[in-house]
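# step 3/5: fold
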Amino acid sequence: MSVVHDLAPDLERRFGGLRRLYGDAGYARVRAASVAVIGLGGVGSWAVEALARSGVARLVLVDLDHVAESNINRQVQALGSTLGMAKAEALRQRVADIHPGCEVQTIEEFASADNWPGLVPQPVDAVIDACDQSHAKLAMAAWALAGGSAFVTVGAAGGKQAAQRVEVADLAEATHDPLLAALRQRLRKQGAARQGAMGLRCVFSREGVAAPAEACEAEGGNDGSLNCHGYGSSVIVTATFGLVAAGEVLRQRINRA
């Protein structure tokens, strides 16, 4: 016996559980939110997934890369059926299946010091920086500090195994993360607070970075960078980073005065 489903999505049924969790006002703020996610890899793709499943109104997805087979171990949009597809487009299609009412804008470029903030043409309520390029991270963080924009920057997930060590805090409190340490140092050179909170939220892990296994080293698998490819990575950690970043954006949105 075949089952006929109503094809019209009931968005309140899909996302109404959040109303019971956050209350009417918080739920309304989440559902009206617009968020840009910069970098759609093992961290950013899961942040997008969480935001879509939270029913946000608008997403801006920024990344120039295409799905590769090596992405399948950690990126939510990376499937056999999406190999070769632009990461942003693969995520756009996935979001449409989760939340048909979400407006999704894809920007197939890398963020850089030269194109930020003009890369995102329309204002958004919050930005998640999930890229691993230090100059782009600095440009975005400096912009957020200067303008007071809602912003979450994400540290390096490569070389980490313990998802339970992931947390969110002010950038001044981050440890065990060379990428964030370098960002903090550069921001302070540019005039950011040297003592106390810096006013910039970040996601990081207090777990030390593990060097690539000897077999991987022998194969030349480490490119010496701080990214997931260089150190190796697990979806258990990268997804946790992304979910925590999305959760911090929603927390800020719900608690907005």
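# step 4/5: annotate
The first strand starts at residue 34 and ends at 38.
# step 5/5: archive (pending)
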